[in-house]
Amino acid sequence: MLRLTAILLSLAASDPDLNELALQLENRSCAYSTQTFEACQLRPLKDRLIDSAFGWLIGSHQQYECPLGAARCLEKLGPKAAPAVPTLLKVLQEGPNDFDTGDGVIAVRSGVVAALAATRDPRAVEALASALEQRPAESERAILEALGSFGPQAAVHWKLAADRLRARNLDKGFEARMREQFDWSIAVELAQKEVQNRNPGVTSFVIPNEAVAAANKLIDRNAPGYIKALESRSEDLVAAAAARALGKMRRADAVDVLVETLTNFHAARAAAQTLGEIGDRSPAVVSGLQQALASARLGPGARSECARALGRLKATQSIPQLRGLLASSEFAPAAAAALGDIGPPAGAALPELKMLATLPTLAVRKGNSLHFSAEASSRGDAKRAAVRAILAIEPERAAAFLAPLRGDPDTGGVIRHALSRPAP
Asked: Are residues 137 and 183 in the same domain?
């Protein structure tokens, strides 16, 4: 009971008790909540009383959940959790890895990694690099994200992230698994619709394996819709984390592996974004982005990111390619944004941009409000990007063209705001 009294008194303060959190990290307490959205909240008094009287280890997963709860709280505290860094480093090195229960993952080590990153303590950099080398396992993504969060401070370890990225690029098994899982889900949906069409009104039925196999053969794997859906559901999160970490480290040495990654369907989007951030305008980078932008094998998200990267790099040699994409409803927003980033040198694209900006809205008025379908929203995005590009390319002359469009439901807000600002 003395132990319980001490806990209750120490936790009465408004800020969480760092000593108690350190004990919880080491599985010697469980005073703070293990729930995701209750970081730093005390567990109910009755639960803590039971812990004190009978031992806190109740439930087969608490040895993972309680340290994770402490880690979440320390992450929330950020730099104020610096006194707990020694314990975090110890648990990172010696503690459990993320634990797969079969129903989900208890990401205890990833939580410790995130807490270390949030403290901004420089001691974390070497420890994270060591963890990535020695036993990354399920926490690999979290470690890469944490290293990246230290930016140039962690740049000495850029090769670790580059090696991880290159290894993921070479892992053809990942792509095979992702496609198999995705194709199976699509085939089940197709087979289910077929069974429902044959049995209208029936709400409970069994889908034979033969029907799923037959539906699988009907999938058009070259269809734009298939590629778009596959991209959105199969990103390689580890590869993407490695690519983004390299971008935050700002290492120009990393551009080679990032250009290689532009051919990786499952990580090309992150690689393109990172190349735009690093700012290397070498021919190899620009050519790699141009080829990826033109590749029908990549998803539209990755290709759009390539367009944006070319704009951020002010790659004027890409202007013809970007102009050609302004006619595509899928790529027009990114192409227009890229041309705007290039600025006045992209003046040759003004006719297409002005045509895009003046397209009629697809929004439908119902009563006193406008309703935007997905198609209408997409057109609105493209038109607004075109307006911003026009303003960037010819700032002195844009007002005369845009003023009559102030009432456009898609672009009116952007135009009115731009025209209300004093001339530079």
From this structure: no
Do 287 and 178 share a structural domain?
yes
Q: How much is the pTM? A: 0.87
The CA-CA-CA angle for residues 18, 21, 24, to 5°, reads 155
The verdict on 175 and 288 lying in the same domain is yes
- Per-residue model confidence as pLDDT tens digits over 230-244: 999 999 999 999 999
Considering the domain architecture, whether residues 170 and 139 belong to the same structural domain is answered as no
Q: What is the pLDDT of residues 331-376, one digit of tens each?
A: 999 999 999 999 999 999 999 999 999 999 998 988 888 899 999 9
The parent domain of residue 289 ranges over: 156-198+206-313
